[in-house]
Amino acid sequence: MSVLTEDRPTAALDAALLLASGVSKSYRTPDHLGRLVLEGIDFALREGEVVAILGKSGSGKSTFLRILAGLIPPSGGRVDYRGRPVTGPVQGIAMVFQSFALFPWLTVLGNVELGLEALGVAAAERRRRAVEAIDVIGLDGFESAYPKELSGGMRQRVGFARALVVNPDILLLDEPFSALDVLTAETLRNDLIDLWSERRIPTKGIVIVSHNIAEAVEMADRIMVFSSDPGRISAEVPIALPRPRDWESAAFRQIVDHVYTLMTTLPGRDGRRGARPEPIGLGYRLPDAAVQQLSGLIERLTEPAYNGRADLPHLADEENLDVDDLFPLIEFMQILGWANVSGGDIELTPAGRAYAEADMLPRKQMFADALLKHVPLAAHIRRVLDERPGHRAPAARFLRELEDHLSEEEAERVLETVINWGRHAEIFAYDYDDEVLSLENF
Ligand SMILES: Nc1ncnc2c1ncn2[C@@H]1O[C@H](COP(=O)(O)OP(=O)(O)OP(=O)(O)O)[C@@H](O)[C@H]1O
Ligand SMILES: [Mg+2]
């Protein structure tokens, strides 16, 4: 049965349950300048809708969900729930997190009842509703079990029961299945879809953050793709497939391919061949990818099975790569100008093929050239070292620069990444003890 609202009047469809207008968010940084994480987000969750949010790690998905729930205030813009401004936690909105966040000293029943205690519901009523929620989510018989006695999947069922016990009007799900193994995730996901489509829960709208593209295509009526730095809605994909959705069907795969393309296309690299790439800035969040993995994947792609071109979902399957591993590699290749992505396919460029076919030494040179040409941070570090007397500079010098663009944690990660790449390319050296970059022995 479709979760869509064929049998609902159009007026109800148009009414936004949750409306975000021009939402932005800056987090405080040590230098007090603040860092913009979300910018100009306009979003409406309509009655009967499931919306999925996809985006790279750090694009602000969780932040946005917390703002929708009223758990943190936006820095700009506003959120309205059924026409009323959200200024703090809202009673009709419940959230489920990736980490189950259960209290180990409370039983299943105790953990679920907790959701109602804050609402001031009387003890007997709490008990009745908690038992009901536990039953609905399929944990019947486990009321008196403690979290440590439960499997991961069952713990997350408790997480869901705790959210459902308040009869939420809106459910906000932040990667609720990511910590579970594939089969457990599938079972729980299907149970949730059933509860929702058979209207066994009173919930009128769901927003789910996911890292899994197929999961989003299965569940959502609409997918929003977030871009990073700052997080904005970079694409919206409506999904009109009937339910239950068949992961193997051509229509399903086509949408998965399309979303892959949207997510692996760099800013300004719209997938058209010959499209002019937008240069990336100094504070660009370099992907977390290792050169060894990059070489491995490029070599695989030149093998006859692929012949320089691969369907991304297929590649992820075949090479047993999680999107969280695959996306950084794909982005790395695109940054270096070694691959293009379009129509859900990745294709090596002539430069990418040349790298794959070259021997060790010329490879190193090609990698160094590509880094200096396409990665401004690498070129910047090299330039500073060239200019400095003694050709040395402490890493902290670059870290401070990066912190103008990125959070402390991200700045460290990006610097570490570029140092690894730069050392591999031999465009500079790094002493881990002194934390000093140099051109020693060059
Ligand atoms: N309380 C905070 N203070 C400062 N910076 C924060 C805070 N919370 C998040 N950030 C930063 O804001 C950015 C967005 O974080 P957020 O957790 O919303 O991203 P996300 O898209 O959910 O990422 P992931 O996919 O890894 O869960 C990140 O760079 C993060 O480091
Ligand atoms: Mg998150």
Q: Helical segment tally? A: 16
Instruction: Report the span from N to C terminus.
Output: 67 Å
How many structural domains does the protein architecture include? Answer: 2
CATH homologous superfamily assignment of the largest domain: P-loop containing nucleotide triphosphate hydrolases
How would you characterize the largest beta sheet?
A: 6 strands, mixed
How many β strands by DSSP?
16
Oligomer: single chain
Shape from CA axes?
globular
Class of the largest domain, according to the CATH hierarchy?
A: Alpha Beta
Strand content: 15-25%
In round numbers, the mean pLDDT is: 89
Instruction: State the CATH architecture of the largest domain.
Output: 3-Layer(aba) Sandwich
Helix content: 40-55%
Explain the overall architecture.
- The structure is a single chain.
- The strands form 4 sheets. A 6-stranded mixed beta sheet has the order 6-7-8-3-9-10, with helices on both faces. It has a 4-stranded antiparallel beta sheet with strand order 2-1-4-5. It has a 3-stranded antiparallel beta sheet with strand order 11-13-12.
- The protein has 16 helices and 16 strands.
- With 442 residues, the protein is an alpha/beta fold.
- α9 (291-302) packs across α12 and α13 (360-374) packs antiparallel against α16.
- Helices cover 41% and strands 19% of the residues.
- The chain has 2 domains: 10-259, Rossmann fold; 291-356, Winged helix-like DNA-binding domain superfamily/Winged helix DNA-binding domain (Arc Repressor Mutant, subunit A), CATH 1.10.10.10.
- β15 (429-431) and β16 (436-438) form a beta hairpin.
- The site of adenosine-5'-triphosphate (ATP) has 13 residues, from α2 and α16.
